[in-house]
Design brief:
Blueprint (H helix, E strand, L loop, with lengths): L1 H10 L5 E3 L8 H9 L4 E4 L5 H14 L4 E6 L9 H17 L16 H11 L3 E5 L5 H9 L3 E6 L2 H10 L3 E5 L5 E2 L14 H14 L6 E4 L5 H10 L3 E4 L1 H4 L8 H7 L7 E4 L7 E4 L2 H6 L11 H15 L22 H19 L3
Parallel strand pairs: 1-9, 2-3, 3-4, 4-5, 5-6, 6-8, 8-9
Antiparallel strand pairs: 7-11, 10-11
Helix pairs in contact: 2-3, 3-5, 4-13, 7-8, 9-14
Bound molecules: flavin mononucleotide.
The site of flavin mononucleotide (FMN) has 31 residues, from strand 4, strand 9 and helix 10.
């Protein structure tokens, strides 16, 4: 309870609830609706060019005067893939699109991804109350720059060691991403591995690791939480707040393709898997026709962000054609529990459930 109130009070929000940043699915309308309802809305800007980050932050500000978060993927500015691997991947993807009757083909983009240093400069200029990061640690100078501007920093960790690394780097809070979590794995320390620690194990492990660093910062729990009882469970284990992604994906304010939203409710838990073949980086989503078609080729495909850029035309065409079976349908393990409804209603419902669960546990 102490931990929860310190996070909520420090940020000036009302609920121990963070709507997860979801690059490609979060919109200014979703972020503002959650922040207006008392949670912390977050915009996933990892794929967004610097000017668009500024424009979207301005749009959020036009819709709410409450705190919100901007989120980026920490990546090197320069990417130099093996040209032969790119050619092979393009041939494979083009053949698949032809077989599936899609008329688009891959192309070489001007850049494989937006430059992180330029996105970071735009984030600093936009000056949100909160900035959150995944895929790597910030450099110490970048951390200082955010502190100088009074921006609250949340780092993403998938293991206890990563949680400690963020605490030592100066983060104000660490978001722990359990194995259940939808979307890309945010970790960075364990080269060649994809740690998949369940949230029940990870919250207490990360809380101890953070405490051992001498900086007792809040731990935010993410992965598979779909209701208020789950939020309370995370708090009982030591979390200060819960970060929910998939639960908000089916909201009308989310920009996930309609066919993807539709598939969430029917997602069988055993079909929600860790997938590399869309982006070159492990991410949790639905095993569909594309994933199965690429199964034998995964080890030959280029790494993130190269493969992500190469599959973009396919994913756009699939969304336009309503072909969810060829889309990156990111979602957490509990996707079938989505409750499609406006984001403000979902926040109110989550908080109602959370309070009921508290009362049920401690009736007097
Ligand atoms: C569609 C989707 C996109 C995501 N994109 C991001 C992102 O851009 N940045 C980030 O830090 N986390 C991202 N995540 C991970 C979330 O922050 C969070 O860990 C996850 O949603 C929690 O699990 P849940 O989906 O079961 O609630 C994404 C998750 C999903 C489902």
């Amino acid at each position: 309870m102490m931990r929860m109130s310190s996070f909520v009070q420090r940020l000036g929000i009302e609920c121990p609830l963070v709507q997860a940043p979801m690059a490609g699915a979060t919109t200014p309308e979703l972020v503002a609706a959650v922040s207006n309802a008392g949670g912390l809305g977050s915009l996933g800007a990892g794929y967004t060019e610097p000017q668009a980050i500024l424009d979207q932050a301005a749009r959020i500000r036009a819709l709410t005067d409450r705190p919100f978060a901007l989120n980026l993927f920490v990546l090197p500015d320069e990417v130099a893939p093996d040209p032969a691997a790119v050619t092979r991947a393009r041939a494979r993807l083009d053949a698949l699109m032809e077989r599936e009757g899609l008329s688009v083909r891959t192309s070489l983009p001007a850049r494989w991804a937006p430059r992180f240093s330029e996105q970071f400069a735009a984030l600093c200029e936009a000056r949100p109350a909160v900035a959150s990061f995944a895929f790597d640690l910030l450099a110490p100078t970048q951390m200082q720059e955010l502190k100088r501007r009074g921006i609250y920093v949340i780092g993403t960790a998938t293991t206890a060691a990563e949680a400690r690394a963020w605490a030592e780097r100066g983060a104000d809070a660490v978001c722990v991403q359990g194995a259940e979590a939808g979307g890309h794995r945010g970790g960075f320390l364990h080269a060649g591995e994809t740690p998949l620690i369940g949230l029940f194990a990870l919250i207490p492990l990360a809380a101890s690791a953070v405490a051992a660093s001498g900086r007792d910062i809040p731990v935010i729990a993410s992965g598979g939480i779909m209701d208020g009882a789950g939020m309370l469970a995370a708090e009982v284990l030591g979390a200060a707040a819960s970060q929910l992604g998939t639960a908000f994906l089916a909201c009308p304010e989310s920009s996930a393709a309609e066919a993807w939203k539709h598939d969430l409710a029917a997602a069988e838990d055993h079909r929600v898997a860790t997938i590399r073949s869309f982006s070159g980086r492990a991410a949790r989503g639905l095993r569909n026709r594309y994933v199965e078609a690429m199964e034998g080729a995964v080890d030959e495909l280029p790494a993130y962000p190269v493969l992500n850029a190469l599959t973009a035309p396919l994913r756009r065409a699939a969304a336009a054609a309503g072909r969810a079976d060829l889309l990156s349908e990111w979602c957490g393990q509990a996707a079938a529990r989505v409750r499609p409804q406006p984001a403000a209603e979902l926040v109110a419902r989550l908080m109602h459930e959370y309070r009921l669960a508290r009362r049920a546990l401690a009736p007097h």
